[in-house]
Specification:
The protein is mainly alpha-helical. It has two domains: about 1-60, Tetratricopeptide repeat domain (Serine Threonine Protein Phosphatase 5, Tetratricopeptide repeat, Alpha Horseshoe); about 60-169, Alpha Horseshoe (Serine Threonine Protein Phosphatase 5, Tetratricopeptide repeat), CATH 1.25.40. The chain is built from nine helices and no strands. Helix 1 (about 10-20) packs antiparallel against helix 2 and helix 4 packs antiparallel against helix 5 (about 80-90). The chain is globular and about 45 Å long. The N and C termini lie far apart (about 30 Å).
């Protein structure tokens, strides 16, 4: 609940307590990774997501872990590596629009405008046209973390979406 209330630091403590009681709680690893991302401890995110993948490699929602890794890699400007993880996520959850939007940004940043436009169109198709209608709409509907992390999102994800053809308003 704390994570959904954007009280990430408090949620981190709760996730860590849960993991101290049971190191195999995959959901707690995923939640802890998200909170670490939003609080700016992004270097700690990928090991948590990888541990969750190792613990539950057949989970039908494993694509969310791939998305988390791809997100961090894109924020760190490791675009080629990010795309590999984002494509894995898309293949496990092909109708999930967030994987598509991140791929659109990644492809655009890599200069693959046609692929970027295709992924953006698919994100819109699966989410409903208005969900990815503009940068302003995406920003209003998302969680972007502390200022340091918001700057990373702006420099990568939003810059890529602009390159993919998403308007500001």
């Amino acid at each position: 609940m704390l994570r959904w209330q954007n009280r990430w630091s408090e949620a981190i403590s709760e996730f860590e307590t849960a993991l101290a009681l049971n190191r195999n709680l995959v959901g707690a690893l995923q939640g802890l990774g998200r909170c670490k991302l939003y609080t700016g401890s992004i270097e700690e995110v990928i090991p948590l997501a990888e541990q969750a993948i190792r613990l539950d490699p057949r989970n039908p929602h494993i694509g969310w872990r791939y998305l988390l890794i791809g997100t961090v890699l894109l924020l760190q400007t490791h675009t080629d590596e990010a795309i590999v993880w984002l494509e894995k996520g898309r293949s496990t959850m092909p109708t999930e629009p967030f994987h598509r939007s991140w791929l659109a940004a990644g492809y655009a940043l890599r200069g693959e405008s046609e692929r970027a436009a295709t992924e953006l169109a698919e994100a819109r198709r699966f989410a409903g046209e208005s969900s990815f209608s503009s940068i302003a709409h995406v920003k209003a509907g998302g969680i972007w973390g502390v200022p340091k992390v918001r700057e990373l999102f702006e420099a990568t994800y939003f810059a890529g979406l602009r390159e993919a053809g998403m308007p500001e308003e």
